[in-house]
What we know:
By secondary structure, this protein is mainly alpha-helical. Helices cover 80% and strands 0% of the residues. It contains 4 helices and no strands. It has helices at 2-16, 19-23, 33-36, 43-125. It is rod-shaped and about 130 Å long.
Amino acid sequence: MHGEASASSSGSSSGATTPDMADAPLPSPPVPATATRPRASTCSEVDDLRRRLTETEAMVRVLQHDTLILNEKLVDATERRAEIQASNDLIARELDVLTEKLFEEANTLVSRESRRRYAQCLHSDGYRSNRCQ
């Protein structure tokens, strides 16, 4: 009986952990991204990186300055374009008004000339003829 009890107790404890699970390795923790990068270990590498950083910062300052200048030029050009567009619109409206007046005047002149010729025709013929229409 003792053999059976010990076999059953060892069987129940072996059922909780199988030999396959006990042998499996635990997953390794994730490696931080900084750990995979090579580190600058010598003074010359550090100095080189500092020099490159200084150069990059200087370039950034120059580019920021250039961007400010270009922004100012863009604002000036935009304002100038708006002024020119307003002038152009004013001239276009003025041209429309003058064109309308010109056509009205031309129509008046044509009408007067037509009436004058008709009156001259009536006066010269003394009566209304087909020629005066």
